[in-house]
UniProtKB/TrEMBL annotation:
InterPro entries on file: EF-hand-dom_pair (IPR011992), EF_Hand_1_Ca_BS (IPR018247), EF_hand_dom (IPR002048), Recoverin (IPR028846)
Coiled coil: none
Domain of life: Eukaryota
Any Pfam family the entry gives: EF-hand_7
Record-linked SMART domains: EFh (SM00054)
Keywords: Calcium, Lipoprotein, Metal-binding, Myristate, Repeat
Protein name: Oidioi.mRNA.OKI2018_I69.chr2.g4127.t1.cds
Stretches assigned to the EF-hand domain: 49-84, 97-132
Cell cycle recorded as keyword: no
Organism listed in the record: Oikopleura dioica
Family classification: Belongs to the recoverin family.
Source lineage: Eukaryota, Metazoa, Chordata, Tunicata, Appendicularia
Length: 143
């Protein structure tokens, strides 16, 4: 899946559906999003400032593009990250379940208590709490 690869092969899609809990459609959507966000085919932790990274993270968690993040949306992404990390020792040392992480994040960020995070709540919460920023950046632990 290098920079010149424009789509996944049927074999790659089948392998991914067998090894993850994602459907073929979900894998294709994630791949299309990855290609849009990372046209070189490479992720870089150092690209962009904090604001840009948080904007990108908000878009990642806002699965239905409604402009808000629900607990269900965040849980879906956090569970996917957990499944990607598997038994990574650095990750396994943190005992919080995906549900506990999402509950903790929402308890700190959902200022108006409506069960959804607006972009403003998300950005303010992540900027003001280092632990939330770290929790949202679970995928950084892969590198």
């Amino acid at each position: 899946m290098g920079a010149s690869k424009s789509k996944l092969s049927k074999k790659e899609i089948n392998d991914l559906t067998e090894k993850t809990s994602f459907t073929e459609e979900e894998i294709k959507l994630w791949f299309a999003g990855f290609q849009r966000d990372c046209p070189t085919g490479k992720l870089s932790k150092s690209e962009g400032n904090v604001e840009e990274k948080l904007e990108w993270a908000f878009q990642l968690y806002d699965l239905d593009n409604s402009g808000t993040i629900t607990k269900e949306e965040m849980l879906e992404i956090v569970e996917a990250i957990f499944s990607l990390l598997g038994s990574d020792e650095r990750f396994a040392q943190n005992s919080l379940s995906p549900e506990s992480r999402v509950d903790r994040i929402f308890s700190k960020m959902d200022i108006n208590g409506d069960g959804e995070l607006s972009k403003e709540e998300f950005l303010r919460g992540a900027k003001n709490d280092k632990s939330i920023c770290q929790a949202l950046s679970l995928y950084d632990k892969i590198a």
